[in-house]
Each structure stands twice: as structure tokens, then as C-alpha cells.
Amino acid sequence: PQAWLTQTLERIANGWPSSDLDALMPWNYAR
Q1: Phi, psi of 25 (to 5 degrees)
Q2: pLDDT tier at 3 (50, 70, 90 boundaries)?
Q3: H or E stretch at 11
Q4: Considering its fold, how many domains does the chain have in total?
Q5: If residue 13 lies in a helix (H) or strand (E), which one and from where to where?
Q6: How many C-alpha atoms does 3 have within 13 Å on its Cβ side?
Q7: Is residue 15 predicted with pLDDT exceeding 90?
Q8: Cβ neighbours of residue 12 under 8 Å, at least 6 residues apart?
Q9: Domain named Transposase IS66 C-terminal: which ranges (predicted)?
Q10: How far is CA 1 from each of CA 17, 19, 22, 27, rounded to the nearest angstrom?
Q11: Cβ neighbours of 6 (radius 10 Å)
């Protein structure tokens, strides 16, 4: 869970488009 959260917060901070938020959900996380 920590790796997913770290990656997700980094992507949001770097300007991840709000239209693609579904890709950031935990069930779409690829290790």
C-alpha cells in the first residue's frame, strides 16, 4: 500500500490529469 500511495501522490503533484484519475486507483496499480 505504501508504494501505491507514494506513486499516486507523486503523480497528482506532478499534474496528473483529472480526466484520468481512474488509472490511479489501487486496483489499477501495476508493481
Answers
A1: -70, 150
A2: very high
A3: helix 2-13
A4: 1
A5: helix 2-13
A6: 3
A7: yes
A8: 24
A9: 1-27
A10: 22, 23, 17, 11
A11: 10
- State residue 30's pLDDT score: 80
Domain that holds residue 19: 1-30
Q: What does the alpha-carbon distance between residue 27 and residue 13 come to, in Å, rounded to a whole number?
A: 20
Cα dihedral angle (2, 23, 20, 4), rounded to 10 degrees? 10
**CA torsion through residues 24, 5, 3, 12, sign:** positive
Chain-centroid distance, C-alpha 30: 10
Secondary structure class of 1 (helix, strand, coil) = coil
For the chain, the average pLDDT equals 93
